[in-house]
UniProtKB/TrEMBL annotation:
It comes from the Eukaryota. This is Pre-mRNA-splicing factor cwc22. SMART domains: MIF4G (SM00543). Gene3D superfamilies: 1.25.40.180. It comes from Datura stramonium (Jimsonweed). Residues 191-222 are annotated as: Disordered. The lineage of its organism: Eukaryota, Viridiplantae, Streptophyta, Embryophyta, Tracheophyta. InterPro entries: ARM-type_fold, CWC22_splicing_factor, MIF4G-like_typ-3. Residues 21-222 form the MIF4G domain. Residues 201-215 have a biased composition (Acidic residues).
Amino acid sequence: MESCEMEESIEYQKKSWIALRKSINGLLNKINKSNIQHIIPELFGENLIRGRGLFCRSIMKSQLNSPIFTDVFAALVAVVIAVVNTKFPQIGELLCKRMVLQLQKSNNKSQTLATVKFIAHLVNQQDPCPLGLHYFGATARNTHEGDIDKREDQLTHQISLDDKVDPQIELDIFKPDPNFAENENKYEEIKKSIVGGGDQESSEDAESESEDEDEQLMKIPR
C-alpha cells in the first residue's frame, strides 16, 4: 500500500517523467547504424505510450540536427510503428501530424528539405516489418514477425499539407496521472510481449541465425 501511494504521488511521477524524457533523448541522440540493434530494445524498455510526445519531439529534433542519419531514424520509426502502432496508433499518427505541421510552418529551406527527406525514407520503408524486426533478435521476431506477415492490418495515416492538425504539444509536458501505477503495469506487460523473456531457446536461436542477420542488419534503404 505504501509503495502504491508513493507511485501515485505527484513528486514520484514527476521524477519518473524527467527520467523518461532524459532516457528517450539520450537513446535517440546516440543511435547510429552500428548500435541500432541494441538501442531498440532499450527504447522499448521505456514507456513509449506515456512518452509518445517526447519520442516524436526527440526523434524529429535529432533528425533535423543530423539529417545524415535519416535512414537510421526512419528504420527506428518503422520498428516502433510495426510493433506498437497496430495496438496504439497514436504514436504513428502523432509523428505524421507533427511532420506535416513542421512543413506547414517552416520558412527554412534546410529544415524543409530535412523533413521531406525523413518522410521520403519512411515512405521507402513500405512494409517495414521484416527490416525492422531484424534488429530484435530471435525472441521478438518469433513473437511478432509471423503475426505481422499474416495480417495486413497495419494502419496508414493520411494527412494532407492543407489539413489543420493538432500537434498535441501538451503530451510533451508533465501531467499527473491518477492511474499512474496501473498504466505503468500495463506497459510492463506490453514490453514483455515485445522484447520477450530472453529464455535459453531464444538465445540459441539468435546465435544460430546471427550470421544471416549480420548480412541484413545494416540494409537500411537510402
